[in-house]
Specification:
alpha/beta, Rossmann fold, binds adenosine-5'-triphosphate
Length: 225
Amino acid sequence: MNSPMLDLAGIEKTYNRGQPSEVTVLRGATLSVGRGEVVALVAPSGAGKSTLLHIAGLLDTPDAGSVALGGVNMVGLGDRARTEARRADVGFIYQFHHLLPEFSALENIVLPQLANGSSASVAKARAMDLLARVGISDRAEHRPAALSGGEQQRVAFCRALANRPRLLLADEPTGNLDPATSDQVFAALMDLVRETGLSALIVTHNMELAARMDRVVRLAAGRVV
Ligand SMILES: Nc1ncnc2c1ncn2[C@@H]1O[C@H](COP(=O)(O)OP(=O)(O)OP(=O)(O)O)[C@@H](O)[C@H]1O
């Protein structure tokens, strides 16, 4: 099957329709991510990147347009089916790690796997493998507060990949790190993505990072150009 991993077509989205605060964010945005392709999405602040990522990741629904994951139409699915598709197919990474503070790095990567039906031993082995790949096996028992910013983001990458998603959506994944750390941590993320053959849509303001991806697209005036 050669359908793209992600196919967004003619996406429209208006918030607060009919109210004084009405704002139209997306006006026919069209974007696809091929299988194994890594696409950079560059846009000024407020252009609607988060809205587009949330629609791509089935966290939000468009007012018009089509959303397909792996060739399967997602528009019109009920909440439950969308949640299941999201859990099975999509991994998210945010600018801030959002790790659970009371759990260790290892537990943060194990928990979503348990929620997805993995056994504890399989989940732990998978988590340790991922931590090794991003070079922080020795931090497995640390809580987030005892990790550096770069280490926290590496753990967040492992957590996003824990359930073997087919599509990774990342919103400025190294945006809160200093430039040198951002570079290293981004390289670790790209290695992980390439090794697993994952498709990814990665929002970044950093043109040097964008240039390391397969393709760069821009969001402007509610459309992808
Ligand atoms: N739930 C909401 N209700 C009303 N307006 C919203 C909502 N979410 C976003 N908006 C508005 O839609 C526009 C786009 O927001 P969005 O978060 O998608 O932009 P962004 O490109 O991700 O911005 P940033 O880079 O600053 O995070 C903004 O003007 C924002 O105020």
